[in-house]
Amino acid sequence: MKISATTLPSIFPLIRKIKWPRNTIPWSISVIYLSLTLILPLLALIQKSFSISFREYLDIALAPIAMSAYEVTFITAIAAGVINGILGTVIAWVLVRYDFPFKKIIDAVIDIPFAVPTSVAGLVLATLYNDQGWVGQFFAPFGIKIAYTRIGVFIAMLFISLPFVVRTLQPVLRELEEETEQAAWSLGATETQTFWRVIFPPLIPPILTGIALGFSRAVGEYGSIVLISSGVPFKDLIAPVLIFQRLEAFDYVGATVIGSVLLLVSLIILFIINLLQQWGRRYAN
Predict the structure, then answer these.
(1) What pLDDT is stored for residue 184 in this prediction?
(2) Spatial separation of the C-alpha atoms in residues 241 and 225, rounded to whole Å
(3) Angstrom distance (rounded) from CA 183 to CA 181
(4) What count of other Cβ atoms lies within 10 Å of the Cβ of residue 54?
(5) How far apart are CA 4 and CA 241, in angstroms?
(6) Model's pTM, two decimal places?
(7) pLDDT on residue 66
(8) What's the CA gap between 256 and 43, in Å, rounded?
């Protein structure tokens, strides 16, 4: 519905009917903090991006270089999220259910992407995966180039998003009662049936939550990817790097337009993941 001056009065009674929480100190602090850190920056981004005509907005948002950057960013982030959703589940399972030497050290290593500055992560990955690096040298003879290609972008997104899946799953795995699995086995269920019908359903919501968090982190990543990618348009240029290139050219409106598209598409994808989480909770129950 288009909001105009004539429709506003009819909206006010509806707003007054909303039952707001009692005005307490925690409520006031939450409103002020969220306004300053989330709502106002989002409003400023939207206001800046729509300071031009809608036609100009579409010309910038749908330019071929921007479309290519969106494709590289979102497709690669989704692929990294799915791969980490699978392998992160395996790693979390091993860390919770297995006892082995140096387990605590390996468990702590999972958090390294959280602690290491993204520029350092990009430098390490570029050194490791270039044609003379420890890993890249084995692929170079076959004509497979990892660093400074889209594969390098994918590797960086895997690196930064893995902890979100593992750390989300570990508490849920610890709370799973092994007696339930033993009961399933005593009733004649095979290990495969026990996994898919007893263990896996409660894991669906945390797996999807980890994928959503990792995807969000990967879409907004800049520091590590800018060092392991070439930043060439229509090759491995991601949207955050394109935004920075626009800012370097003092094209602030163009940067905010691309940023608003990035925000909109991310919200749509996260909304879809949220629907899948709700389905997963119903399936688990």
Answers:
(1) 81
(2) 8
(3) 5
(4) 8
(5) 38
(6) 0.82
(7) 93
(8) 11
